[in-house]
Amino acid sequence: MEQVDVVLANNDRVTLRVGDVFLKIDADQARTEVEVEAMAMAPVPTPEILWRKPPVLAVAAVPGRALGRLQDPSTASPAAWAATGAAIRALHGAPLPRWPGPSVDELASRLDSECEWLVANDVLPAEVVTRNRRLAETALRPWAPVFIHGDLHIEHVFVDGDEVTGIIDWSGACQGDALYDLATLTLAHHEHLGDVIAGYGSEVDRDLIRAWWSWRCLVVVRWLAENGYGSPDEYPEIAVLRSQCL
Questions:
Q1: DSSP 100
Q2: How far apart are CA 238 and CA 244, in angstroms?
Q3: pLDDT tens-digit profile of 191-213?
Q4: Does residue 232 lie in a domain region?
Q5: What is the domain count for the chain?
């Protein structure tokens, strides 16, 4: 008998795995609508949708294995990272989704509130928060919007050898800054940034990618802490924030 594995469980959503089927249960059906439409539009491999009965979306497992884990060194080849860069470039070259992403003002407001929380709760020294905040603010400038995944976490990309076999979890897809996807993918894995850029096939501003690293780490720590992901001291994001000050 196949067992039920809890892949993800937090206050917003739950993902269960039964054999080769993932059952995604989301309290916000607007996110599911985005995920379904984005997967249909994306010019890259995505999971097959098996059925949908709100609030549940059933998708098939994609072949291969994750490109890596945020907290561990990646064992994927440089060619696999480059292939991921090429897939991202294909996505960014696709027609825009009909829904916009957060505005620069919205992103700045979120940054403000999260930095205040980090300092008020003594999660990080104020100087570490301040230096990363100043760096993050440089990413919040006008950009030409592209079709972004929006949560291109390293564990959301699957590869088999040197080939990308699937990109999962599209509920954050929207119009946004191309560099945000590249930064999210390489967060805590800066040693593979060159491979990704080589596959992406275009010059990018590495300083802005570094700025997005700071932004993403600053805004995610409270959510992780409030959803049972352990002590912030153990988060890879905290390590990144500290390293950004070196």
A1: B
A2: 10
A3: 999 999 999 998 999 999 999 99
A4: yes
A5: 1
pTM: 0.95
CATH code at position 209: 3.90.1200.10
Asked if residue 209 belongs to a domain, the reply is yes
Range of the domain at 146: 64-243
214 DSSP 8-state letter:
H
Residue 177 CB-half CA count within 13 A: 21
**pLDDT digit string, tens, across residues 215-245:** 999 999 999 999 888 899 999 999 999 999 9
Would you give the end-to-end CA distance of the chain in angstroms?
52
Residue 33 lies in a domain: no
6 within domain boundaries: no
> What own/partner pairs with CB < 8 Å and gap ≥ 24 does 76-81 have?
76/159, 77/161, 77/162, 78/192, 78/195, 79/162, 79/195, 80/159, 80/161, 80/162, 80/163, 80/164, 81/192, 81/195, 81/196, 81/199
What is the distance between the alpha carbons of residues 81 and 41, in angstroms, rounded to a whole number?
23
The CB density around residue 5, as the number of other CB atoms within 10 Å, is 11
